[in-house]
Predict the structure of Tripartite tricarboxylate transporter substrate binding protein BugD.
Amino acid sequence: MQFKRTLVTLLGLSTVVLAQAQGTWPTKPVTLVVPFAAGGPTDVVARTLGAAMTRTLGQTVVVENKLGAGGTVAASYVAKAAPDGYTFFIHHNGMATSTALYRKLSYDPLKDFEFVSQAVEVPMTMLARKDFPANNLQEMVSYIKANQAKINLANAGLGAVSQLCGMMFQRAIGVQLTEVPFQGTAPAMNALLGGQVDVLCDQTTQTVPQIKAGNVKLYGVTTRNRVKVLPGTPTLAEQGLKDFEVVVWHGIYAPKGTPKAIVDRMNQAVRTALKDPDVIKRMDDLGAEIVPDATNTPEALHAWLQSEINKWGPVIKAGGKFAD
Ligand code: MLT
């Protein structure tokens, strides 16, 4: 009886505290978890949006990089975090592809999160180290085929889009390369610049400055159409890799149970950030496309994730590379 009364009191108290929290939220810094290394493509999007959201929310958005297992360590961490409105998560296609890549995931991407907002879409670029002995895609493919055993392909682990793109590339040209996983494509890019690895497929949000500085060789973009930020660069598909298309999309999530009022305010904060002139310019300079505001709802992100799980599952299963 005493226990029941205490429980009722506690539940009553927590309802009051929660209601207050929703009314004044946020009263302290908000954490945005990034599943890959600092300085890389996901981190760049998170920090750009975070700076703008800090202005709207009146509290600092702190980016926290939680690395490992192609983004699944961070996803698992956020799925189990307190749903108090102070932990959010930015992730890309990996939220969908991991369901097929991992035999056991400690979370369900569709059920263990609140869906906040979509953010940007980003093309990828097929690159090699600066002194790679091939000057166009045709030469690259011939060289790789002739030297398969000694070519290293960098990526950010199973669940990363660099891994997905690399897998599709190998399949398209019929080779099996040695894959070298990093904890993000920031360290993978460093290895490419240092010549420790040969090939990397990575997002324009990181690669454009390196391409423009002439630090890497570029062989094509992974989108259906050419992209404005790299004029004159052909797509992989138009150079003969039939139907090759990988577009990276970023979404923002919260732990399941985060109050709807907070999720809705965060959705507004992201959408306001996506209209900020600094964000628009930075994303434009890096080739990222902002998702249309009119359709940017939590429900739309949930539906999109479901469609991406349906799309990539069979592609990955056919690829035959899995982790426990
Ligand atoms: C990163 O932020 O490092 C990348 O998004 C990793 C990847 O998925 O390739």
Summary: The first strand starts at residue 30 and ends at 34. The radius of gyration is 21 Å. Confidence is low (pLDDT under 50) at residues 1-21.
